[in-house]
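pinning this so it doesn't scroll away 📌
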Amino acid sequence: MNAAPQVEPFDYVIFGGTGDLAMRKLLPAFYHRFLDGDVPDGCRIVGTARAQLDRAGYQARIHDALKQFVDHASYDEKRVRKFLECVFYLSLDGSRADSDWDGLSGLLEGGEDRVRVFYFATAPRLYEPACANLHEKGFVTAGSRVVLEKPIGTDLASAEEINAGVARYFDEKHIFRIDHYLGKETVQDVLALRFANPVFEAVWSGEYIQSIQITAAETVGVEARAAYYDTSGATRDMVQNHLLQVLCLCAMEAPKSLEADDVRDAKVAVLKALHPMTDESVRSDTVRAQYQKGEIAGHAVPGYLEELGHPSHTETYVALRAEVETPRWKDVSFYIRTAKRMKAKTSEIVVTFRASSSQLFPGASRPNILVIRVQPDEGLSYRLSVKDPQDDTFTLRSAEMNVGFPQQFGVRYPDSYERLLLDAVRGNPILFIRRDEVEAAWRWIGPVLDAWARDVAPMSSYVAGSWGPDEATRMLDLHGDVWHEAMDDM
């Protein structure tokens, strides 16, 4: 992961170019890369969708989006207008052969030797027909890549079908399955923390680590995404992709190198080493729940079923315990948790070390805890035991070492999409998901979803603005663990 090379002029076609993802994330990310000089003159960013817009109308939408989603310090009206000169629009239905493909050909004219990236910010069911049309209309060149947004399927069978469909038209080396969590700088820091610091590398195993928690909590509800979310749920939306990827980085053996396939081989090995989930383990090691009405930041909020307007068995909260069956991780619990309408917005990795066996302070020390803050306030903290300066005896107190990365380095931490968009141009797949990773993740999580569909584990509930259901607390208590927010009581 050395300094990324400057890219040559490229063409980037976004299917779903008027959608929320494009306006909230993709185009602001391109704007930031433009400010940094990483979008050379002559690049063309082409938004496509079914909406009947002209170029000026599309540029006006992007202009409004940048005002809303770009931080004030980075927004510059003159630079925005210069950036918009790179942006084009075409009303096009990628899934239909009779759509305006001639119009796309005109927009891309003269760029046959350039890198072309086709980004699918659309429903996965459109991936194969759109790829077929790109191939049959002659748009797939030697320098073409395709970027696929998650979810890749809703189960193993559908994932295999999507992967096979896209593979008919693009080689695996030209398929970039994006997981924006891997684009987060602090997630990438897990590799540096583990393998570039001997003090952590030496203790990164079950001999010294009791448990690892991976949490992605949001205060928002499903809101405008209710229709999508009710067909997905917390597990498909977050666990199968984002959080299992983080688990892999925490648990993998050192890869042979930082070449893409070496890193991805190491991650696949973790997914294959996960202890299979049976009905019995689903009962004991998983919790699913829906939020009920409550209060967040002093404001009353409705429950999930009230927002949805009809009954549902979709989980907005999931917590599960996993085991990695390798010698390194014997007797270590990995906890994964994600939810809507939680008390605070946080994404973090919490490593709890085993209590000291020193006879000098028997039973007196609290466990060391390492917290890697993915977002917000990217950084890390480490809790250790020190002598109490207010006591003449050797009484111990906890002290915290805290580092905020943006403050430490004096930089704006980039959004995760900023690097990923251009890594696809560079043809660097290290932060993208390989086909066997997707399918291995579905093989492990599929039995959990199947068991829930048969009500093997009941649906629980939690009050909006809380830290989730009591059942999740009890699940950890059975293994002598507690969630991070309760660790001050340890």
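📌 and the second one:
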Amino acid sequence: MSKHDHLPAHLTRSFSGTYRLTGRMAIFDDANTPFQKVRLSDCQGDHIAWLNLTLTAPPEGITHLDHVTATGVKSVTGHFMIQEFRAAASDEIQALTPLQSLPRIYCPVPEAFDQLIATTQSLNSVHLKECLKRVLEQQDRLESFLNAPASLNNHHAYAGGLLQHSLEVANNTVAMLRLNDPAQPRILQETCFVAGLLHDIGKTFTYDSKGKPNAAWKLCHHDDLTLEACAEGFAYLDKQARELSLTLRHMLTAASPGARYGKPAAMALARYLRDADGQSAMADNERRVFKQDTGWGFRRSRHQAFWRPDLNVLPL
């Protein structure tokens, strides 16, 4: 990335780096010169640039969300004109920081997206960061992770709800570990964060790129798809940090209410994850049923009843 890439495109004269290709279309200028207008995206934002097709042929074989390396310079007309545009080399992709190439444009909850990027990149463990990179940057599932709901008719049932819920579970799992056993090392705190972030990752198989339920949503339970979704990341950990992969596997599959699998929890971390999941779901449902209601007493969602005390009669 260039030193200017953190600035909005209209404040820079050039850009250069490796991005995801998130859009392109054929256009013509006033002189009827053919161009390809492309959108290049990463975790910080987008660059819209024009490729002059009379001077440069677009590279073959590049499809939606592929990594591309590009350089652009702002012209006298104010448009960014592409000087270099090619498929990114494997070493360029590997050199990207974790989750750097996730397209911010695809997440309808930008504050959650920014928290995801900042927290992941702040992890000390290079192995856990690489694991998350291999799981969350899967090209066929990254859009659904960013914009799918956590459920259709229950908690976090809105676009971006899956990411919001995953972050809440991750942060709450870490908080419980710190509260109950603050002497535990940072590596276990980071493991709790990763487990919380990935606990519902199987849902990325059950929604399409627009966050709509697909055939797998009817045919499979997302719990049963979680380890499959984590396969590449866990295969990496198996070789580099076997104890971490075992810890994460146990946390994600230990028996819990509603789960269709599971050994009894053999470590408190698995209980923290289970409880954090339930807390996030219940809190969101409670907020929703009282959202338009400042009263007190019982209210009911589709799944359960909620009660709020009358604060006016409580002693100070």
